[in-house]
Specification:
The chain has 418 residues and is α/β, with parallel strands linked by helices. Helices cover 40% and strands 21% of the residues.
């Protein structure tokens, strides 16, 4: 009979400097239940395997190790299905606690607290907690206090990652591993099963600090994100996952998904804002070749948005058609993006009436030699006017609210990733 309640799952690769901290944190747990420690070494080339063998020999009834002879993460990219299968097949516990080999736990009551809550609340699929951020780049230590009080995390905050739940803090029910196929092909860490978990139950968060997250040390995930190609591939995969997740949830969290997609687009644009057209296109092509044909449409749309922002002579054909269909056109916004659109329209010889802003926005009366109206001033003519949204759509929920409140339906946004 299996009496193990919790399986501690640790994936490690070249963590010889850190793995002892992780394992000692596992062994220090004080619990009223039985747990197991499973360490998966993904063909480390340093002394990591040697160190975990040492612990395996000292604690043969507690520590079990899986030693790969070939790096599975590289071999199976972008899918993580292989990892989920290994985890599912080897973990005996009702609950799984995650900690990667370069992070570690600092609270001996961590498992007991999290599992007690899960046992008492069947509607809860996962628990997590505050952590300490150990930054190896600037040698700082700071608490990541997402919440000052314990409580259930609003699902939109998890999608937006305003509650960026870190791997080393998670304890979840084993059924979280029974993900649908597209989650497994995302190739972007723990975010897919956070999204999947939202459809299965609540995520409860403890304000107590119980683990340490190492960042920017050599070989870490955060360190690899400094590479422009790897960073772009990661964010393209995020965009793809969120589009599919929006369909999977039948638009239940659409605004949060759109805002998160736009955040990825915004970071890509920001990181490449000094590149020439040819240089940015070249980076897109390299990433496109690596990811394959399933991502072609994402790169095409991304390049189109980049051109819309940085090329004053460029104008999306959709905008041209939109302007033709409307007898009057206005630009929503009176900032950078609105100014970009105004210049592009002028260059293409397309006239527009002026700019419109939300009713509560303080602004000037004229911008770029055109009038600026409040939304309420246009309401009597809203059915005659087409609105081009010249605002960064990272604030799409606010933009939609402004349009919906005014009853405006005839609008489009060339900066929106659709």
């Amino acid at each position: 009979m299996n009496d193990i309640l919790v399986s501690i799952w640790c994936v490690t690769y070249n963590h010889e400097l850190y793995i002892r901290d992780a394992i000692e944190g596992f062994l220090s747990q004080k619990t009223s239940f039985k747990y197991e420690i499973i360490i998966h070494d993904d063909a480390s080339t340093d002394r990591t395997a040697e160190i975990i063998r040492e612990y395996e020999q000292k604690h043969p009834n507690l520590v079990q190790c899986i030693y790969q002879t070939e790096n599975q993460f590289v071999k199976n990219q972008p899918s993580i299905e292989w990892l989920w299968k290994i985890q599912f097949d080897n973990c005996k516990g009702k609950y799984i606690a995650i900690c990667e080999g370069d992070d570690y736990w600092i609270d001996t009551k961590k498992l007991q607290l999290q599992v007690d809550y899960l046992e008492m609340h069947p509607e809860c699929i996962m628990t997590a907690h505050n952590v300490i951020d150990l930054n190896h780049r600037n040698h700082t230590v700071s608490p990541v206090n997402l919440y000052l009080e314990d409580g259930v995390v609003p699902k939109e905050r998890i999608i937006s990652q305003k509650a960026a739940i870190l791997t080393g803090s998670m304890v979840y029910r084993k059924e979280v591993l029974e993900l649908d196929k597209f989650f497994l092909n995302a190739g972007i860490g723990d975010y897919p099963y956070l999204l999947y978990s939202l459809s299965k139950g609540d995520i409860y968060y403890f304000s107590r600090i119980m683990s340490v997250y190492r960042r920017y040390h050599e070989g870490s995930w955060s360190d690899t994100m400094l590479d422009s190609k790897k960073n772009m591939i990661y964010r393209i995969q995020m965009i793809d996952l969120l589009r599919k997740y929006n369909r999977y949830t039948e638009g239940k969290y659409e605004k949060a998904c759109i805002s998160k997609i736009q955040e990825q687009v915004d970071v890509i644009i920001y990181l490449n804002n000094e590149k020439s057209k040819e240089s940015f296109l070249g980076l897109c092509r390299k990433c496109d070749e690596e990811l394959g044909e399933d991502y072609h449409d994402i790169f095409e749309k991304l390049f189109q948005i980049w051109m819309q922002i940085f090329d004053e002579k460029y104008l999306n054909n959709t905008i041209k058609e939109f302007c033709k269909k409307n007898s009057k056109t206005v630009i929503m916004g009176a900032g950078r993006y609105a100014g970009i659109l105004a210049k592009q329209l002028k260059y293409q010889g397309i006239d527009f009436e002026g700019f419109v802003v939300s009713n509560n926005q303080e602004t000037i009366k004229r911008y770029m030699e055109k009038p600026v109206w409040k939304m309420k001033e246009l309401l009597n003519h809203k059915n005659e006017i087409g609105i081009i949204i010249g605002i960064n759509p990272i604030k799409w929920d606010e933009i939609m609210y402004t349009c919906e409140e005014a009853g405006v339906k005839n609008y489009m946004c060339p900066f929106l990733f659709e």
